[in-house]
Amino acid sequence: MKPVRVGICGLGTVGGGTFNVLTNNAKEISRRAGREIIIEQVTQRRPNPAIELGDVKTTKDVFDVVNNPDIDIIVELIGGYTIAKEVVMTAINNGKHVVTANKALIAVYGSEIFAAAEEKGVSVMYEAAVAGGIPIIKAIREGLAANRINWLAGIINGTGNFILTEMRDKGRAFDDVLAEAQALGYAEADPTFDVEGIDAAHKLTILSSIAYGIPLQFEHCYTEGISKVSPQDVEFAEELGYRIKHLGVSRRTDKGIDLRVHPTLIPESRTIAKVDGVLNAVTVNGDAVGDTLYVGAGAGAGPTASAVVADVIDLARTFDAPASASVNHLAFDTIDDVRVLPIEQIETAYYLRIQVQDRKGVLASIATILSNADINIEALIQKEPRMENDLAQIIILTHLIEESIMDKSIEAIEALDSTHGKVTRIRVEQLD
Question: Whole-prediction pTM value?
Answer without folding.
Answer: 0.96
